[in-house]
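Example record used in the benchmark description.
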Amino acid sequence: MKPIEPCVPLSFNLETAITVTDCLVFAKTGKHLNNLQVAIVQGVWTGETYEDISKGTCWSEPYIKTIGAALWELLSEILNEQVGKKNFRSVIERRYKDLSAVKSVRSSACLNATTSVLPSLEFPDGPVKLTSTLYCDRPPIESSCYQAISQPGALLRIRAPRQMGKTSLLIRILNDAEQQGYSTVLLNLQLVDTAILQDLNRFLQWFCARVSHALKLPLQLADYWDDIFGSKTSCKDYFENYLLPQCQQSLVLALDEVDTLFAYPATADGFFTLLRAWYEDAKNSELWQTLRLILVHSTEAYVPLHINQSPFNVGISIELPEFNAAQVKTLIDSHRLNWTKAEVEKLMFQVGGHPYLVRVALYHIARTPTTLDELLDSALTISSPFYHHLQRQLSTLKKQTTLATTLKAIITAQEPVYLKSLELFQLNHMGLIKVQSGQVKIRCELYRRWLSQEY
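Model output (structure tokens):
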């Protein structure tokens, strides 16, 4: 049989590897790679272990090992040579180059289909890449954020539960700021060691050091840190007399996962009071007007702060909503799925407009032969793409029984529930509930079904 010229990019990269592997599997089995097989190819290609792949997906490590072993066995049979985790990359690249890897493809339609669909779908884990076609705008939020950060001395607060798209929005704001010629620094407070978080002085030194490093400036803490004046004054001096004057343009400083500090009241009180003071200084100082702050968090601050010392009641507040029906339909179209209005409504009845849950569902359906009905029928089983997400939430609830008790009360309540408690903040941070006009509800039907089964 005459070899089929592959309709794939000439340069061999991850997307090409997925395309070729998918064609090989399709030619042998009549089925495309499912989403777990794609995740395994992606992980192995980048040198990840099965444990690494498990952390970034909704499957356990033993299950991934089982599916991976089956995939290597299938490819070994197709290519008539031993294929495994260690040599997959070298084998697939070598066989692609001499076209033997695509001789068995039944038709170029397979290649055309995979190159037009597969490369455009990223596994829905972590922020949506800046270049991705799967980012969905929520007008007028994006334009409002771009406009806000261009204002001297701006303070922008972005709030939403976990996996609602905060970081995806943040990297687009920073990209827009860079296009305007601003310097940008992004710090994720989840990456700070516990020992540092417990000590305000150490935390503020870490803070100054990380900003210096991000701006590629020499660390000069010894010249500005003085125990006589205290850590907050020393930190302000470091910014006022060193960092900000060194910047040739305005500095956009974004702090992601600000909630991390809420568990350390003394550090949170000192740091947030300092940020509020900088915001107030910008009203009368051209130097401080060059600093624009972005705070990203999942819940309201439950650290007791004086009204005039809190950065959470000033500036511009953005609360990310769920996707509406039109935005979900846009995502469906981006996944090349031709759905009816009834199918859109059926998906949204189960998962609402939760960005992560919607994308998980669409990715799974687009990558496998699974229908929407089949996905929803098996949504609570171990084979469900939601399984790992639900188990992770359940693990947190089991460790904190007061959260589970509060959640059960919300599920079984016959009357509207109104809560003002630490448990409410934590459940909202997890994204399990939503609050409308002070009334607390389970976020979506999927969660209600799952929690009713567990409790």
